[in-house]
Amino acid sequence: MRDASPSAASRPLRRRTATLVAAATAVAGVAAVFVVAAPPSHSVAGPATGRATVWMRAAGAPPTVIAHRGAASLAPENTLISDEVARRGGAVWIENDVQPSKDGVPYVLHDTTVDRTTDGTGPIRSLTSAQIDALDAGSWFAPAYAGTRVPTLAAQLADLRERGGKLLLEVKGPHSLAEVARIVREVRDQDMTGRVFVQSFDVPSLRYVHQLAPKLPLGLLRGTLDPDPVALARQLGLAAYNVSDTALGTRPELVRELHAAGVAVNVWTVDTPARWKALDALGVDGLITNRPTQLAGWASGRG
């Protein structure tokens, strides 16, 4: 998503906590099996139907906690260790991004270049899988994470399958049919079709996903509202309309309208209790956050 990454001002705190977090989760030993007990699960839903779906939270239930790029405030984003920290903090849903290397291997990375979150440079699409595999994706965040790698989508799916968790997967930017087919194949090869929800800003990519895997639920990402989100949701067969907090604030009644059409609403990227409370009261179904542990604690104690 196009929100800002955790601010530079927060980095001293991150570095002070990174050593403790890294020790607890064992960066080099993400092999220890740790499965978080899941709350009532959300399963695959069909397109907008005009009635409540399993992606819409039950009355009285808290919004679903969705860990943005893993636990992005505590560990280097879009890495297996970030996913693990999020799981240990109570998150079941992980939100991550996928893009292809020069040789077509899907990798988990947010930016179009590797510059910000690795020790390398250049667009990810200009680098081979061998070049990406050699990058350090942890030192930029804190020294304790040196040697962390950019995971392939296959590696992330395998990690979630073996250790627990579900994936809100953003197809980052425009993808060709062949590139989307590779993503779908990875999901199927890891037997994860029942635990993956696909989202994207790019409508053609969502159409490709539906063409190739019609049972995968789809979410349309939006930083500004479409003229008629309900009509578009019906047209695309969306399970969810995943909108920025700022955009939803311009038309909060949209939550009710989408729910009436059987479409869930997940909001990004929300990191403060005041906004959690306001969006909870509005009835949104999921909150995408850089602070999943804090949100999980808030949700369990809300009253």
How would you describe this structure to a colleague?
The protein has about 300 residues and is of the alpha/beta class. About 35% of the residues lie in helices and about 15% in strands. The protein is built from eleven helices and nine strands. Strands 1-2-4-5-6-7-8-9 form an eight-stranded parallel barrel, surrounded by seven helices. Strand 8, helix 10 and strand 9 form a beta-alpha-beta unit. Helix 5 packs across helix 6. The longest helix is centred in the first third of the chain and has 15 residues. The chain is globular and about 50 Å long. About 10% of the residues have low confidence.
Largest sheet features: 8 strands, parallel, barrel
The residue ranges in which pLDDT falls below 50 over 5 or more consecutive positions are 19-50
- The Cα radius of gyration reads 18 Å
Distance between the termini: 30 Å
**Form type:** globular
**Helical percent range?**
25-40%
Q: Per DSSP, what share of the residues sits in E-state strands of 2 or more residues? A: 15-25%
* Number of contiguous helices: 11
Can you give the mean pLDDT? Answer: 88
Let me know the number of strands.
9
| Spatial strand sequence of the major β-sheet | 1-2-4-5-6-7-8-9
Please provide the ordered H/E string of secondary-structure elements: HEHEEHHEHEHEHEHHEHEH
Structural class: alpha/beta
